[in-house]
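Predict structure. Input: PAS domain S-box protein, 349 residues.
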Amino acid sequence: MASRFWGLGCPKIFHEVATLLDVVEKLAQLYAIAIEYRQKVEQVRSAERRLREIVENQVDGMLVLDQGGRIRFANRATELMLGRQRESLIDHDFGFPIAAGEATELQLLQRGGRMAVCEMRAAPTEWEGEAAYVVNLHDITERIESAREMEQMLEETIRVIAAAVEKRDPYTAGHQRRVSELATAIAEEMELEREQVRGIRLGALIHDLGKIYTPAEILSRPGTLSDAEFELIKSHCQVGYDIVKAVRFPWPIAEMVLQHHERIDGSGYPRGVRGEALIIEARILSVADVVEAINSHRPYRAALGMDMALQEINNHRGQWYDPAVVDACTLLLDQDRFQWSETMRPGDF
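Output follows.
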């Protein structure tokens, strides 16, 4: 009798057991999924912590700005660069225009009165579900100071070379300095970039460097030169170029030295360069050189005066000399807006 009841209940028990096992299996799967999810969450959190540590310990300043330019996040380096505590930065205006994708230089007054120069780069990002910018601030103060020191050294070297050249030719002592003064004034009148003007000033200081290889007796001879002697003097452009071409100036000094006796119609020397092939620095230098030379004493003649100098460049305006350069030079001198320095005037020996 008992076996009969047992037999009748087996299918139901087996079904319940199977259902229970199925539930247990699903619970196990859910548990495995939960464990995997927790591990992934922990991995994400760990990655976030590492990323935050990297951002916090960056030498560069890093900020997040909203579309209105308000600071939403700033790392530790930003505090040092901006000279303010992080708490006083958050939700305040950054104060500088943002140009995504472009490098911009900022001057920042830091603690202790130090003026720093930073290169800023910005890129679009998202912050808490809203469009934003991530900004990187890189301190380039030391790099700029090193570059300035190097430029100062180059400038001092140029001045030493200029002095050495002029020591050999007492009749034209100060010529290069006077040409430099006038060329600088012309470049400024033409509204050239500041660094371009600086390059013109320095290049003019050594434009006759090649004369260091010309015999002194030829340079100071009062009489007429032979054709061979004149050709030797004309070689000073190429000689000067060969001396300085290997020096990595941030300005086209070598080309200025080479081209300062070229003419825009191709009739100059040493290479007969013409038109747009002549760099603007050389076009300015050639006009300043001619004006100073005509207005100064030479071993073979007395000074001819400024009127004669202006007549020369205007008579050959557009033929030998760049019209814009001639006009700028003429305007400066006609309006008495240029004077050579008191310590060195044309005709001084």
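The longest strand covers residues 115-127.
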